[in-house]
Amino acid sequence: MAISLVMTIKHLLDIETLEKHDIEMLLEKGLKMDADLQAGQHDKARLKGRIILNMFFENSTRTRISFEMAALRLGASVINWDNSSSSTKKGESLTDTLRCVNAYSPDCIIVRHSEFKAPYTVKRLVETSVVNAGDSYRAHPSQALLDALTLLKEKGKIEGLTIAICGDVTHSRVASDNFHLLHKMGANVRVIAPEFLMPKKRPYDNFETFTSMEKGLDGCDAVMMLRNQKERMEKSDIPDDAEYFRTFGLTPERLEIAKKDAIVMHPGPMNRGVEIADAVADDPYRSVIFKQMANGLPMRMVILDSVME
Ligand code: NCD
């Protein structure tokens, strides 16, 4: 990718509203930040004096910590807003909470919320940059970008790769933004899922779909596994995890069907023995799952740097 690194995005709300050019620039910066970070040569004072507010209304380990680490590595200060001890628990509306927060003029708000398009609501109510750390089943742009950075580092390209996204695609914001990104970047994307978890509407209708792992994995360069998002399902949807694993779990035998050098990805948290076997998750050659998590740091450093430039 020979492109200029100049870009201006004030917010990162989803992949759908980014141009291919923006994605390429973010990824190019991600590769550079990753190399600088490894060499200890990144600009440690780049965001010195900036104050970032982390507002997570849903549980998170990787995303919250890596955003916080990213901010601190660039010299910014972080306030972790605690939903459980906030005034929303005293009945304050989200709108009033955000108006209050806006009065203190943070330099950036990172938000995760279960409501559809919640970061757009935040953006309307505050004057600062807003970064979406995941909303509903709709969007998780920083995850899609770090997944793309992982593909670039492991495979050297995205265009032309055949990538299977497997499992609970219907309820997954990771899948949703990955579809947008991979489509814009020219990958061939497949969905492998049981019929009842197969999404019926765009952006998924222009992708090949399979209800059999054995058929869908054939010829894949990368396999992205997803957790079953039971918090967004009826209890009866997947009554038996063992049965799900027998049919849709990624086992070493099934991975053999993909290309010999196919990589395995998972956004985490993994449910071992449900969507993925231990032997695959911990395979030192094929699984890039923990490298993928590590890529969250340089990618989120770039995101914070870009929106506060
Ligand atoms: C995902 C999320 O929260 O959307 N995890 C993550 O951000 N790494 C996926 C999930 O919860 O299964």
Summarize the structure.
With 309 residues, the chain is of the alpha/beta class. The chain has helices at 20-38, 62-73, 94-103, 118-125, 141-155, 173-184, 213-216, 241-248, 252-255, 278-281, 289-307, and strands at residues 51-56, 77-81, 108-113, 129-135, 162-166, 188-192, 208-210, 222-225, 263-265. It is built from eleven helices and nine strands.
Task: Report on this structure.
With 309 residues, the protein is α/β, with parallel strands linked by helices. It folds into two domains: 20-140 and 294-307, Rossmann fold, CATH 3.40.50; 143-293, Aspartate/ornithine carbamoyltransferase (Rossmann fold, 3-Layer(aba) Sandwich). 37% of the residues lie in helices and 14% in strands. Helix 1 crosses helix 11 (289-307). The model is unreliable at 1-5 (pLDDT under 50). The structure holds N-carbamoyl-L-aspartate (NCD). Residues 62-63, 134, 140, 143, 173-174, 227, 229, 267-268 line the site of N-carbamoyl-L-aspartate.
Give the topology.
Elements: H1 20-38, E1 51-56, H2 62-73, E2 77-81, H3 94-103, E3 108-113, H4 118-125, E4 129-135, H5 141-155, E5 162-166, H6 173-184, E6 188-192, E7 208-210, H7 213-216, E8 222-225, H8 241-248, H9 252-255, E9 263-265, H10 278-281, H11 289-307
Helix pairs in contact: 1-5, 1-11, 2-11, 5-6, 5-11
N-carbamoyl-L-aspartate (NCD) binds next to α2 and α6.
